[in-house]
Design goal:
The complex is a heterodimer of chains A (about 325) and B (about 500). By secondary structure, chain A is mainly alpha-helical. Chain A has 13 helices and 4 strands. Helices cover about 35% and strands about 25% of the residues of chain B.
């Protein structure tokens, strides 16, 4: 009896369609959107518009999506990223114009602040086993409040001391906006960490079966804490990019951004039940979100309607992922 | 006496496993009919068929003399059948009164009337519990009373107790027996499942003994003795599944535990395992065997006592400490605790000692890992299409081999296996026994927990028997018999004193 190999062959075949959708579903959505967008508006495929989309994505969902992906892989959620980005944005301007720090010092301090926010959320989640939803919700309020306090509710200009930062925000490298390069670099590092290091392997395994990982002698809480620290640090980077683009630190940055980031990760095929998700698909997910917003602007869809369409398109993307089985469990 | 229920030739299969193979069972009004047998004999499955919780694969059910099909628990309730499960099915955050009348809550509720009725019902059972209290704040015994009150809140003709006294103190058990006596006097038919054979003899009218999904015998309790019941529950030769035990050198004490205390189920446990020795840990499910293993492995906190590895005291604050110190645990719940089902074999196999395949920058050396895991898979005869296949695509036996591969890779000296062959087919079982023997031959200290007595007899050099969180005794090869093991586990004293 060769039942084992038969069974493997059968399950292999049954698997295939799902695996295919799971792996290339996001790419499919992405390609369809690009085709639709270029047919809809001739100005979509122009160089300046595409670079605009990239810059838009880099300063909204893009940079934060890798951190969110890591958190979601461990079966958690980080709702605080938008607020932490705002805090990062405000602190960047604050350190430069009020404290008179240099740009590099400022960047370092701001990233540390974001990491600290993540450490607080992650510490409670990892060591006291509090639900990440609620803990990050609390951090969402705290970080937003802190950014309002530091900015006294008004935008802070980075002034002359921040010229280098402003130059970075509007500059190009090899014809690509520099913020987008930062984003790609983060995705690249994220992809390497996730696929080739023990850290990436363990956080994925934790999301699939935390108890089995713990009973393999791995200190699970340390890893859970780490993903929130990474998410917080990357949210702060998003805040720095935002300041560099506009030249001001504003507490109004990133309101509702957490939803776009989560949507990008989930359109990228990651499972909210943990243990499944990839970096390339998450990048595609973030680009999909950016393209959707861009098409609607080009097509002149009114702002209020845009939100409704955005929601509907997410539903469609979810249905495709549902077909791929990544939302079922 | 009239016949309340008759189950005829009931069969039930789960996949390929035949849990019930043609069982006949009947219940008369005003009798207590005890159902006994080892774990996995099919008692609970049979009662779930009677309770409408699962349809039988074949066989007939007659209730009150009429052929009936029970479509779901509601249908069974409508026929007056109630089941008190071992794991209580209460809503912990609701009040006692709400739980009792959960099924009939609808529309506008008069809380005062509800509480009054609940209080009356509980009082009629001889207890005094505030109906407004949250169920989660009650002791387990009182939760059981609530469960019984819930069953009696409607007209009941048949009531099934599935190991009700396992969690009760002697005093509470006594009161439960009074309640059962009263129900019997009212003409209710009671099915009583228990491992406590003394109480079976004292409260039941008839006893049905089950084994391997079949009925061994149904006899009046008056004709039975504890000895006779145990003999009927056990005794089946097992095929030659076990590898020949070669001569092994038994070395120094590898693992020693002294007076372990942790929770209700680990109460002063002391024993030791030597290098090259295979020691069994027997006893009934819930006797504390798994809890002892988890404490040694650092998975649950130790309250007091000492764990010594190679003579040195080891502090096990977490499984990480245990793995570092060379202790391995093959857990009872393979899918929930042993493997990461979605992850490939390769990732599972190296998880307990990733450092061996990771360079100093944290990057996994995939070529090395593939080779190591490939070699392990070969030596354990792991059958899989490739080592990158998700563990979920493997059979139970091969999944267990992945867990074993993980500990081979980690390379500890103390191996604890909790139900190592549960849900594993016969061929893989035999291979796993061979692997366990090889571990011992390599000088590891092996502790095997199992509910399959033949497995313990075939594999172990000696068997420690647990009951209610304590070691009840020890069996050595010439004295191996299921009767002795079971009587140690159940009553704490052997029937044949020389085994003690």
């Amino acid at each position: 009896m060769t039942t084992i190999s038969e069974r493997a062959a059968q399950s292999g075949r049954r698997f295939d369609f799902g695996t295919l959708l799971n792996r290339f579903g996001t790419l499919g959505i992405f390609v369809v959107l690009v085709v639709v967008a270029s047919l809809w508006s001739p100005s979509f495929l122009t160089q300046s518009n595409l670079l605009n989309v990239l810059r838009q994505v880099a300063s909204s969902a893009g940079v934060m999506a890798v951190g969110m992906l890591f958190v979601i892989l461990t079966r958690g959620i980080d709702l605080s990223v938008g607020s932490v980005a705002a805090l990062g944005c405000v602190l960047t301007a604050y350190f430069i114009s009020f404290s008179g720090h240099s740009v590099p010092t400022t960047i370092l301090l701001v990233i540390l602040s974001g990491a600290l926010c993540g450490a607080v959320t992650g510490g409670f989640v990892a060591y006291l086993k509090l639900p990440s939803f609620v803990m990050s919700l609390a951090m969402m309020a705290i970080a937003r409040g802190l950014s309002l306090i530091f900015s006294a509710g008004r935008p802070i200009s980075i002034g002359d001391g921040g010229q280098a930062l402003a130059d970075f925000g509007s500059g190009y490298l090899l014809g690509i906006p520099q913020p987008a390069i930062v984003m790609f670099a983060i995705f690249l590092v994220g992809g390497v960490v996730l696929n080739f290091t023990s850290f990436g392997r363990i956080i994925t395994a934790i999301g699939s079966n935390e108890e089995a990982v713990r009973l393999s002698g791995i200190a699970v809480p340390r890893y859970i804490l780490s993903v929130y620290v990474i998410s917080g640090a990357l949210a702060a980077v998003a805040g720095i990019i935002s300041t560099s683009r506009t030249g001001v630190g504003s507490a109004q940055v990133g309101v509702g951004a957490e939803l776009n980031v989560i949507a990008a990760v989930v359109i990228g095929g990651a499972s909210l039940m943990g243990g499944r998700g990839g970096v390339i698909n998450t990048l595609l997910g973030a680009l999909v979100m950016g393209i959707i917003a861009n098409i609607m602007n080009l097509a002149g869809v009114p702002g209020y309607d845009q939100q409704v369409y955005m929601g509907l398109i997410i539903v469609v993307a979810m249905l495709i992922q549902y077909g791929a089985g990544s939302l079922k469990r | 006496m009239t016949e309340l229920a008759r189950l005829t030739a009931i069969a039930k299969s789960f996949g390929g496993v035949r849990a019930l193979r043609g069982v006949d069972f009947d219940l008369q009004s005003g009798e207590v009919h005890a159902l006994i047998g080892e774990n996995g004999a099919g008692k609970s499955t049979l009662m779930r068929v009677l309770g409408g919780e699962m349809p039988p694969s074949s066989g007939g059910i007659r209730i009150d003399g009429k052929t009936t099909e029970l479509h779901g628990p509601r249908a069974a309730r409508a026929h007056g059948i109630a089941i008190i499960h071992q794991e209580l099915a209460l809503a912990p955050d609701l009040s006692v009164a709400e739980n009792i009348f959960l099924g009939e809550l609808s529309g506008v509720i008069s809380w005062s009337a509800l509480r009054r009725r609940a209080a009356e019902l509980i009082a009629s059972l001889g207890f005094d519990i505030d109906p407004a209290r949250r169920v989660s704040s009650l002791a387990v015994a009182h939760q059981q009373v609530v469960e019984i009150a819930k069953a009696l809140s409607r007209k009941v003709k048949i009531i099934v107790f599935d190991e009700p006294t396992a969690v009760l103190s002697a005093q509470d058990a006594e009161r439960l027996h009074e309640i059962i006596g009263r129900l019997r006097a009212e003409g209710v038919g009671v099915v009583y499942i228990s491992h406590r054979l003394e109480e079976i003899l004292s409260i039941s009218d008839r006893v049905t003994v089950m084994k391997d999904g079949q009925v061994v015998a149904t006899k009046p309790a008056a004709e039975l003795t504890i000895d006779a019941m145990i003999r009927m529950m056990v005794g089946r030769p097992m095929a030659a599944l076990f590898p020949e035990k070669g001569p092994r050198t038994i070395g120094e004490e590898r693992l020693a535990v002294r007076d372990l205390q942790a929770g209700r189920l680990v109460r002063g446990v002391t024993f030791s395992v030597r290098a090259g020795e295979i020691v069994g840990l027997g006893g009934l499910v819930g006797s504390g065997r798994t809890e002892v293993a988890r404490v040694i492995f650092g998975a649950d906190p130790l309250e007091s006592g000492a764990i010594l590895l190679d003579g040195k005291e080891a502090k096990m604050r977490s499984p990480k400490d245990a793995v570092r110190a060379g202790v391995c645990l093959v857990p009872e719940d393979r899918k929930g605790q042993g493997v990461v089902l979605d992850a490939p074999i390769r990732i599972n196999a190296t998880m307990a000692r990733l450092s061996a395949v990771v360079n100093r920058f944290g990057f996994v050396r995939q070529a090395l890992e593939r080779k190591l895991v490939g070699d392990l898979a070969g030596s354990l005869k792991l059958k899989a299409s490739r080592i990158d296949a998700p563990v979920s695509t493997l059979s139970g036996g091969n999944q267990q081999k992945v867990v074993l591969a993980k500990w081979f890779h980690a390379g500890g000296n103390v191996i604890i296996l909790d139900e190592p062959t549960r849900g594993v087919d016969v061929g893989a079982k035999s291979e796993i026994y061979g692997i366990v023997l090889k571990l011992a031959e390599a000088g590891k200290a092996v502790l095997v927990i199992s509910s399959e007595h033949q497995e313990l007899f075939g594999l172990c050099d000696r068997i420690l028997v647990m009951g209610e969180g304590q070691l009840r005794g020890e069996l050595k090869p010439p004295d191996y018999s299921e009767e002795r093991l079971l009587s140690l586990a159940i009553s704490g004293s052997t029937l044949h004193q020389k085994a003690a």
